[in-house]
Amino acid sequence: MSELRQLAHEPALDRWPSLRPPKPHPVRRAAAQAAIKYVARDLPATIALDGTRYGQGGPVLEVHRPGPFLDRLGRDAGTGFGESFLAGDWDPAPGTDLADLLLPFAERFSPEKDSGLIPQWAQALRGLATRAHPADQDNDRNQARQNASRHYDLNNSMFAEFLDPTMTYSCAQFAPEQLNVDGLSYEDLQPAQLRKLDAVLDAAGVRSGSRVLEIGCGWGSLAVRAAQRGAWVTAITIGAQQALQAQARIEAAGVRDRVKVALRDYRDQIGEFDAVVSVEMIEAVGEKYWPAYFGTIERRLAPGGVAVLQAIVMPHERMLATRRTYTWVQKYIFPGGLLPSVEAIEQVTRQHTGLEVEVLRRLGQHYGPTLRLWRDRFNERWPEVSSLGFDPTFRRMWELYLAYSEAGFRSGYLDDVQLRLTRP
């Protein structure tokens, strides 16, 4: 992160109007400073703020502009911390990696510690400093497509700069021995992604002649892999640019006769399939539409069919506590998104479908390395990304998104699971 450190970073406000410095508010500023003191009381990190160092040592967060930093936190606790980084109000100290800095914060949310960053008595006051989800992020058919476009249609070439050659944008599955050593490289990503794709297809029983529906096909890597087994694949997405690129990649792989790519909402899919696969798609569905999502999977499965999902999940109690909170990630990265818990998936399928859920494997420990490799590659390829029209604030935004996610998986606060869904 040291090469990104910009003490006087100023976002172009015509492109980033939400990063305008908030109007100073003494009460909110004081409340934010009090919250920092509370958070840092036993935190194995340091917050250097206005001449005072809070925390118990460890990686250092340097606040360059105390006033705007506190004002942003006081105005909106859900988005203020991330926005203050985008605006250049704070950075990791020189030589400190951003994910390493964020790790102690994420560990406070881990299932083992589960102490949270907010004291129990303050949970009831959450609504005073956080916003609810805006209405324009609801995931009905029209808005879901707009929400997806804001992320997945940013620029196919931008994603190609940091993803592996398969263009797989989900957790890789490394060999067990690779997780016990340092030094994973970008070249390790492609075989790890292919290992993951094969694990999903194996679990779904995909073989020659299988009729496969993929909900949320990304850039086509899973569809290509299934077609190479001899399956017939219907791959759907609501990202227009993503669909075009997926089709091109499928043609380049020589399997266009076996794969049909459609720009289609999952709720509009018809037909019957031997297997339904959906990798890290449920996070974009929204809690309100989980019954529709699983209902679609159930209706599309032929008798004896199997569905396999891969999902990023969080602890159930944390999901319940934060599901109404509007976060920085939802505002800037994944509008309309919400991470479920395994318990929530089990409850929804039990209440609204006849599907039975089985946890096949947990890949959370694989996601930290995946995200680190993506982030390293993104930074390495920044000159090429920049040439596509992305500015330094966008770079800070994606640096924070990838590092924040990495810290969540390294801490155990987030997990990634593969689930098999069947009808008895």
Q: How does this structure look, described?
A:
There is one protein chain. The chain folds into 2 domains: 2-131, no CATH class; 136-422, Vaccinia Virus protein VP39 (Rossmann fold, 3-Layer(aba) Sandwich). Helices cover 42% and strands 16% of the residues. It has helices spanning 26-39, 66-75, 80-86, 98-107, 126-129, 141-152, 156-162, 189-203, 221-228, 240-252, 290-300, 316-322, 328-332, 342-352, 364-380, 382-386, 392-411; strands spanning 46-49, 52-55, 60-63, 90-92, 211-215, 232-237, 259-263, 273-279, 301-313, 356-362, 415-422. Strand 6, helix 10 and strand 7 (259-263) form a beta-alpha-beta unit. Helix 8 crosses helix 9, helix 11 (290-300) crosses helix 14 (342-352) and helix 15 runs antiparallel to helix 17 (392-411). The protein is globular, with a radius of gyration of 22 Å.
List keywords for this structure.
single chain; 424 residues; alpha/beta; Rossmann fold; 4-stranded mixed sheet; 17 helices; 11 strands; globular
List the SSEs and their pairings.
Blueprint: H1 26-39, E1 46-49, E2 52-55, E3 60-63, H2 66-75, H3 80-86, E4 90-92, H4 98-107, H5 126-129, H6 141-152, H7 156-162, H8 189-203, E5 211-215, H9 221-228, E6 232-237, H10 240-252, E7 259-263, E8 273-279, H11 290-300, E9 301-313, H12 316-322, H13 328-332, H14 342-352, E10 356-362, H15 364-380, H16 382-386, H17 392-411, E11 415-422
Helix pairs in contact: 1-2, 2-3, 4-17, 8-9, 11-14, 15-17
